[in-house]
Amino acid sequence: MSELSGNLLVAQSGGPTCVINASMAGVIQEAGRHECIGEIYGGLNGILGILHEELIDLNDEKARTIEGLKHTPAAALGTCRYKINFDRDPATAARDMDRLFAVFHAHDIRYFLYAGGNDSQDTAHKIHLQARQRGWDMRVIGVPKTIDNDLPHTDHCPGYGSVIKFNAATVMEVAADVKSMATDDGFCCIIEVMGRAAGWIAGGTVVAKRSPNDAPHIILLPEIPFDEDKFLAKVKDNVAVLKYCIVVCGEGIKYANGEEVGVDKSRLDAFGHAALGGAADRLAEKVQGALKLKTRTVKLGYAQRAAAHFASLTDATEAAACGEAAVRAAVAGQSGCMVKLVRTSDAPYQWTTGLQPLADIANVEHFVPRDWISDDGMMVNDKFLHYARPLIEGEVKVPMECGLPKFAVLERSLVEKKLPPRG
């Protein structure tokens, strides 16, 4: 395919991870190596910022700042959860697309890279199709990102290795604390982690186990219907033997009828989903009520996806490589694809990058296989352990200042707007 000259636009979307900026650093550094790419722009707050023509000039950033993004958490460009939905609101979606392509035309955007999860890859796919329909020569590549690890066709997602590294370490530390306080009366601690539909994060805490009696003693995944009686019996058995029990639960665990244990139907998120965040509390109420055990909860919340100080070096390296691979693919003429991670060896762990059509990715969720979960549904097995263990290897060296991590901060030099404000 003939070389395409023009500007590159990169943006971030959805919930951040502690390595999403490493992917962006990979994009920026690789883009600078190709003469066909002129300006390198960043879209502030994802697709929503691009709709408002809020772009920054990444060429103005210092090289050391870009390198520093590799150990900086959150989304340096800002993010959003805005969805262009032709099914639900075709008129607004059509106006959004017209506006997006007006921005692309105004700033000669010929390369568009979007880092995000399921909904973000759907947006990238729609933009790719629209570019073809409108005859706008532009190459669109998705960069994978999600701690949920639920994108299909990739061995795993950047962000996942770091979140399970942090969560597993937290499980070990909390377990040591709880064990030291356990008496004949018994003690239960329930640790809630992210994961609405898929249990990859909860399951990943299995790497904390060095022996059968180590925590976590129970792992509850959204893929397995929650059985209250079996759960309480399992807690009771663990306390009888160890005097304490550490439970890890995914926030989206469900009853057999599909209702989420921790759902709050009075609050909805940006996509209309009922808010989550109460699974651990509901479980604690059940344990205290039925077993009369002292029970505490730990909700890792945003901390689990922002813990750059304890990121996996493997994860950060792969994240940067995905950004670099996205640029190379676009320059080579590819469009409508997402970069994926391909595992080529387990022992030693080896990997490479590949490409997958966005049509295969958009709005498809990848769940934990049933044969990776114990028969009783309350623990994962060696198949999961062998999958997850290599992803947490290595430590990112984060520079320190006054005893705390020093993160990179973009200057954010705004690009002059050329269009009237969005209507």
If you had to describe this structure to a student in words, what would you say it looks like?
This protein is an alpha/beta fold and 423 residues long. It has two domains: 207 residues, Rossmann fold (3-Layer(aba) Sandwich), CATH 3.40.50.450; 146 residues, Rossmann fold (3-Layer(aba) Sandwich), CATH 3.40.50. The chain is built from twelve helices and 15 strands. The strands form four sheets. It has a seven-stranded mixed sheet with strand order 3-2-1-4-5-12-13, with helices on both faces. Strands 7-8-6-11 form a four-stranded parallel sheet. The protein is elongated. The two termini are 37 Å apart. The model has no long low-confidence stretch (mean pLDDT 95).
Report the uncertain regions.
none
Structural class of the helix and strand makeup? Answer: alpha/beta
Helix content: 25-40%
Tally of DSSP β-strands: 15
Annotated CATH architecture of the largest domain: 3-Layer(aba) Sandwich
Mean pLDDT score, rounded? 95
Briefly say what this structure is.
By secondary structure, the protein is of the alpha/beta class. The chain has helices at residues 20-31, 46-51, 63-68, 90-106, 118-134, 160-181, 200-204, 228-242, 279-291, 303-306, 313-331, 382-388, and strands spanning 6-12, 37-43, 55-57, 109-116, 139-144, 187-193, 218-220, 244-250, 264-268, 274-275, 294-299, 337-346, 349-357, 400-401, 404-405. It has 2 domains: 6-146 and 308-363 and 396-405, Rossmann fold (3-Layer(aba) Sandwich); 160-305, 3-Layer(aba) Sandwich (Rossmann fold), CATH 3.40.50.
Describe the secondary structure blueprint for this structure.
Elements: E1 6-12, H1 20-31, E2 37-43, H2 46-51, E3 55-57, H3 63-68, H4 90-106, E4 109-116, H5 118-134, E5 139-144, H6 160-181, E6 187-193, H7 200-204, E7 218-220, H8 228-242, E8 244-250, E9 264-268, E10 274-275, H9 279-291, E11 294-299, H10 303-306, H11 313-331, E12 337-346, E13 349-357, H12 382-388, E14 400-401, E15 404-405
Parallel strand pairs: 1-2, 1-4, 4-5, 5-12, 6-8, 6-11, 7-8
Antiparallel strand pairs: 2-3, 9-10, 12-13, 14-15
